[in-house]
Design a protein that fits this description.
The complex is a heterodimer of chains A (about 170) and B (about 325).
Chain A lengths: L1 H45 L14 E3 H8 L4 H4 L8 E5 L23 E5 L9 E16 L2 E16 L6
Chain B lengths: L1 H8 L12 H43 L10 E20 L8 E8 L13 E3 L3 E3 L3 E15 L3 E9 L3 E4 L3 H9 L5 E2 L10 E4 L8 E4 L4 E4 L2 E4 L4 H7 L2 H31 L7 H12 L7 H17 L9
Parallel strand pairs in B: 4-6, 7-8, 7-9, 9-10
Antiparallel strand pairs in B: 1-2, 1-5, 2-3, 5-6, 10-11, 11-12
Classes of the chains: A alpha+beta (about 170), B alpha/beta (about 325).
Chain lengths: ~170, ~325
């Protein structure tokens, strides 16, 4: 009888461990889903944030001059911890359909003749895997022509990533 | 029946000795141990579940605040309804954590059995939002509204959370318009003779008031402290505890420095496009002052410089304005 009791306890312990492992696996997945939906909701309002919004105050419009200013800022490294994304970048219309290797990354010298504005990448945050979501935006910048300064806008994609902590792509 | 059973298991027929078989003793000890373990782990599991739920709720509240980014709107408002009496804890705010932006942490708990509040869930970090509220906001219904804060360019949106009723006596028309325009609930504008069961906020006659707003000197007196304000920060000063307010003012000033650097770089870009903005020196002064502020009292000094920058920007050629 005593050994039967021990066997029953062991059996239920094993069942408990199994149930807990299934439960915690779901919890992990749930955490990732929450993080992803958080990235998506944050992304939709990101264009209206003070670091990005256009001078003309159009909705869903990003000021490219400010973004290149941000990329070139000493404080840029701090911004990677300001937003909870694993990466954040803007792909200009000229970069649509191009592979990452073929895209010309914008910097102080080549701006605005470039394809992507990388605010921070997953490598900057030392993150291995991520899942990205994107939103179309109007990307505007100041242009000078025939003695006038005006705002020139084009379509672009704002892309933000969420870290995936498990070793799966 | 029961006596017979006891007699049998304890061998009570033989009055000289009581026999405890190994199996019986082992069963009793192990049974008690198993029962203890079962109760211990069940209570642990319930505690963990409660903690997970409270932490998830805090994270969801932070996510819920994302769409409050005002963008081109002057503000947004909404309310959250909970099934039970709930507490949002806004107790941690540190302008020197996560430099230069500072950090707030919020946690959540709700009433459990016995009318007691459960232990707080894990704290959720808030790095890119400025939440103004009491240290503990309690209620089944909470009001949230956001207003933008500019000095002179837009710095961020201020998120205000409250659950009590507020009565504003003799407020300026701008505040009445803001509150009515945003349809913020639980803020009333009673006459002096009308009864008010909420927090009394006075703008002119300061007798029998919980919060006093001195518009000319631009400060709010509450909890025995003066909270200086500029622009929409008046709402932060009214609705939040003094510690949370002062911390968020410092965080906002740090943000001016970070945004100032972006605008300095933008100046260099638009100079290439035929513009000649004459803001750079004043902008750099503004950044230097905001770097070293101790409390909201410095807002008076900063506001003058901010107004000067705003004036220069407004006077610029429409195509060459640095900000709107």
């Amino acid at each position: 009888m005593a050994f039967m009791l021990v066997a029953v306890v062991l059996f239920f312990t094993l069942v408990g461990v199994f149930v807990l492992s299934v439960y915690y696996k779901n919890l992990h997945r749930e955490a990732l889903n929450i993080a992803e939906s958080k990235t998506l909701t944050a992304l939709t309002s990101l264009a209206d944030s003070p670091e990005f919004y256009c001078h003309s105050m159009k909705p869903n419009c990003v000021d490219a001059d400010k973004v290149i200013g941000l990329i070139n800022a000493v404080n840029k490294t701090n911004y990677k911890n300001f937003w909870d994304f694993s990466s954040l970048k803007i792909i200009k219309a000229s970069g649509f359909g191009k592979s990452e290797e073929d895209m010309i990354e914008c910097n102080w010298q080549n701006y605005p003749d470039c394809d992507s504005l990388i605010i921070f990448s997953k490598e900057d945050k030392k993150i291995k895997y991520e899942r990205t979501v994107s939103s179309f935006i109007a990307l505007c910048r100041k242009e000078y022509e025939n003695g006038y300064t005006y705002e020139k806008c084009e379509i672009a994609k704002l892309i933000a990533g969420t870290e995936i902590k498990e070793n799966k792509k | 029946m029961c006596v017979l059973f006891l007699k049998k298991i304890f061998n009570l027929e033989n009055k000289k000795a009581v026999e405890f078989g190994f199996n019986l003793i082992f069963s009793l000890i192990v049974g008690a141990f198993i029962l203890f373990l079962a109760i211990y782990f069940a209570s642990k599991f319930i505690k963990t579940q409660e903690n997970v739920f409270y932490t998830e709720s805090a994270a969801q509240i932070v996510s819920f605040l994302d769409p409050f980014e005002t963008g081109i709107a002057s503000g947004k408002s909404s309310e959250i309804n909970f099934k039970k009496e709930t507490r949002i804890y806004n107790e941690y705010c540190n302008p020197n954590d996560n430099l230069p932006f500072g950090l707030q942490k919020i946690s959540f708990s709700e009433k459990t059995l016995g009318e007691k509040f459960g232990d707080k869930g894990e704290k959720i970090q808030v790095k890119n939002k400025y939440i103004f509220s009491d240290k503990i906001v309690q209620g089944k219904k909470m009001n949230i509204f956001s207003v933008s804060f500019s000095m002179p360019f837009k710095i961020s949106d201020l998120l205000i959370i409250f659950s009590k009723d507020y009565c504003f006596y003799d407020p300026p028309q701008k505040i009445v318009d803001d509150v009515e325009g945003l349809r913020i609930k639980n803020i009333y504008f009673p006459n002096e003779t009308e009864k008010c069961n909420g927090v009394r906020v006075c703008f002119k006659d300061y007798s029998n008031c919980d919060i006093k707003v001195y518009e000319d000197e631009k400060y709010v007196q509450k909890e025995g402290k003066r909270l200086y304000y500029y622009d929409n920060l008046i709402y932060g000063a009214i609705f939040s505890s003094s510690d949370v307010y002062e911390c968020n003012v410092k965080r906002l000033m740090n943000k001016i420095e970070a945004l100032g650097e972006i605008y300095e770089n933008k100046i260099k870009i638009i100079e290439r496009k035929g513009c000649d903005p004459r803001i750079e020196l004043k902008l750099s002064n503004l950044m230097n002052i905001t770097r070293n502020i101790d409390n909201s009292k410095a807002l008076n000094q900063i506001s003058k410089l901010s107004d000067e920058i705003d004036e220069i920007n407004r006077a610029a050629n429409p195509g060459c304005k640095l900000f709107n």
